[in-house]
Design a protein that fits this description.
By secondary structure, the protein is of the alpha+beta class. The strands form five sheets. Strands 2, 3, 9, 10 and 11 form a five-stranded antiparallel beta sheet that branches. Strands 6-7-5-8 form a four-stranded antiparallel beta sheet, with helices on one face. The chain is extended. It is built from 22 helices and 15 strands.
């Protein structure tokens, strides 16, 4: 239960073995490859070079193709899937089967080609619909659209704004010449459409008369036959295109049974990309390659066994002072779920301390203390256990539901001692719906709170919360002292902490006896010790004086633990409010129905809201108050070359 000791790995092997070795390192999942400390501009390294990135580009293209195919399939053949799905389990041989992967790529290409065909057909459909919309205003005219002017007659298709007075324009044209005829076609929201046929000699006169009404020529070139004839032809073409679109969609949807195969191939592509990205950190010569990175010291024998069958040389060295070493936490399986809480804040620095064993029990207890309801705890536990057993979630999701089981147990356990069972539901049920029926003695004792009832005695809960906070803060100081002695700075660690203990003891003596001498001694200790790292006598003196102000920070930290009481009280009060609202219907059929409805909705709301708030505030007490006493943050996560799948699980890592 600690931060794993890391070793710097330097490995040189034959270039012909590079792909095989990278596959094996990915299988081991214990080596993080980074950039080698080599200046390639130095002439003495002229013989080495970085591998080209073509294979990485190809791997990313395959991944993009597969993911795009899945998104197309999701659009045209959506699958009904819940929040969780059971991931199929595959052996390595099945997972990396090249024939299966190629079939998946071919399927993805067929889906993408189908989408391209569909896109083309949709564009064609849009073009035909646009043409149909263009013809729509001229449908009432029974004249060929190719009708054109000759040397004697002028034929003009025109428009004027919808607000223009067509009758007035018709009169103006008639007044301009009796050798002209206007035929009204139609109108829409923006324009009015018409046909002008006139003698060629009066064309300009007629057009001039129409311009004051906003006349414009309409372009109907390229059509043969009447608008109605062309409209019918377009309808026929649209029907054909619509049928082809349906066929294209059905063709894409026909690949729905291949969805799981495509997902499996997506996972395969991710592994290929990971190896190719690592390859970009290597340097090559014509015959060899060089790799540099980090690995856990405890994996040395395992790595040595793998490399023994290759022509390769490697070196493992301890980190140097200026190295940025990645952090890997090693905890028992049953405790690993608390990692998600730590990682939400920050991983510890490599030279820090693993906080997970220190916060595992307190975090779970704080959560239970704030929720404090037997029924709520059983609900959280049951849901978390059910999801874990049925769907086997992995990664952060798996940790969340594993942690949920512990949190549910803690909530139910604390609820036993504070009398919480859906708030005061037992009291309401017996008082309103079972009048005259005596509550069993054990149940009555439980509902009153074996130790304390948060609604009836909130101050007692607050005192308990503050005492718990003082104990945790003291423990954080003890961890600080331990880290100081571990790092050879034990005296400094003691001087950081012990003067404050004298101050706190002095405060206690003032409260109990009224004597102030120990408190004064404590402040003198702070004056003499807390500015010791400052330069000069005045710097040390004023540094000590300034440390007195930190008493407010300590007071703030202690009072922060009052949120344990506040959240417990909030959960209980909200539960009681919903129980009271539900019981307003009284002892009637309608009252029982009302109670059940309000009960289910209200307590569901209470669990959902307080689940989030309790989780956050339990984390906050550790992040700000507890971690502030000893925690060295800023750790860089250890990210080895390893299998990282989303849709399948690789369970058999042994060669067949």
């Amino acid at each position: 239960m600690a931060i794993v000791k890391m070793k710097r790995l330097r490995l040189m092997g034959m270039r012909s073995d590079r792909e095989s070795l990278l596959h094996l390192l990915q299988k081991l999942g214990c080596v993080e490859v980074d950039e080698p400390a080599i200046d390639l501009s130095d002439p003495k390294w002229a013989a080495v070079a970085k591998p080209d990135g073509r294979d990485l580009s190809n791997a990313k293209e395959r991944s993009s193709l597969l993911n795009h195919a899945l998104s197309v399939l999701k659009k045209y053949a959506p699958a009904k899937e819940g929040l969780f799905r059971i991931r199929p389990e595959l052996s390595e041989k099945e997972f990396f089967d090249p024939n299966f992967y190629q079939q998946g790529l071919d399927t993805a290409q067929a889906i993408v080609d189908g989408e391209r065909t569909l896109t083309s057909l949709t564009a064609q459909q849009g073009k035909l619909q646009t043409q149909k919309a263009t013809l729509a205003p001229w449908l009432p005219l029974d004249v060929p659209l190719e009708l054109a002017s000759d040397g004697t007659i002028s034929v003009i298709f025109g428009t004027i704004p919808a607000k223009a007075d067509y009758a007035a324009m018709e009169g103006a044209v008639a007044q301009a010449s009796d050798l002209a005829s206007l035929t009204y076609a139609s109108a829409d929201r923006d324009l009015q459409y018409f046909l002008l046929i006139c003698h060629h000699d009066v064309e300009e006169t007629c057009c001039e008369a129409m311009r004051e009404f906003g006349f414009s020529r309409a372009n109907v070139r390229g059509w043969t036959g009447t608008a109605a004839d062309n409209d019918r032809q377009l309808d026929n073409e649209l029907a054909v295109v619509a049928q082809k679109i349906d066929e294209a969609k059905e063709h894409i949807a026909s690949f729905a049974p291949q969805r799981e195969a495509l997902r499996r191939c997506v996972d395969r592509a991710v592994q290929d990309i990971a190896r190719e990205e690592v390859k970009g950190h290597l340097v090559d010569t014509a015959d060899t390659f060089f790799l540099e990175g980090w690995m856990p010291a405890k994996k040395e024998e395992e790595l040595g066994a793998v490399l023994s069958s290759y022509t390769a040389a490697y070196e493992l060295a301890d980190p140097e002072k200026d190295d940025v070493v990645p952090t890997l936490l090693d905890n028992p399986k049953w405790m690993r779920c608390i990692n998600m809480v730590t990682e939400m804040y920050s991983l510890p620095a490599y030279n820090g301390i693993d906080p997970n064993p220190l916060i595992f029990f307190t975090y779970i207890f704080f959560f239970g203390f704030m929720f404090a309801d037997v029924a709520y705890g059983l609900i959280i536990f049951a849901i978390s256990l059910l999801v874990t057993k049925k769907f086997h979630p992995k990664g952060t999701m798996g940790y969340m539901f594993q942690l949920g089981q512990y949190l549910g147990i803690s909530t139910a356990f604390v609820g036993i001692f504070v009398g919480g069972f859906f708030g005061n539901a037992l009291d309401v049920i017996y008082d309103v719906f079972l009048p005259g029926v005596a509550m069993p003695g054990w149940m009555a004792a439980f509902s009153k709170g074996i130790i304390v009832n948060p609604v009836n005695d909130p101050m007692k809960v607050m005192v308990i919360a503050v005492v718990i906070g003082c104990v945790q803060l003291l423990f954080g100081q003890l961890v600080h002292i331990y880290m100081g002695f571990r790092d050879g700075e034990g005296v400094d660690a003691l001087l950081d902490v012990v003067p404050w203990w004298v101050v706190f003891a002095g405060i206690g003596m003032v409260v109990v006896t009224g004597s102030v001498w120990l408190l004064v001694a404590g402040f003198l200790c702070l004056l003499l010790t807390q500015g010791r790292h400052n330069k000069g006598i005045f710097g040390k003196f004023f540094g000590g004086i300034a440390s007195w102000y930190d008493i407010t920070s300590w007071l703030s930290d202690v009072l922060s633990y009052a949120r344990l009481m506040a959240l417990m009280l909030a959960t209980s009060v909200i539960a009681q409010v919903f129980n009271t609202l539900g019981s307003l219907g009284g002892r009637t059929v309608a009252g029982v129905i009302l109670f059940v409805v309000v009960f289910v909705i209200g307590h569901g709301f209470n669990v959902g809201v307080n689940l989030i708030g309790t989780y956050v505030h339990a984390a906050r007490l550790h992040y700000l108050e507890f971690f502030g006493k000893f925690y060295k943050e800023g750790g860089i996560p250890f990210r080895p070359l390893a299998y990282n799948t989303k849709y399948v699980d690789i369970i058999n890592k042994e060669e067949d």
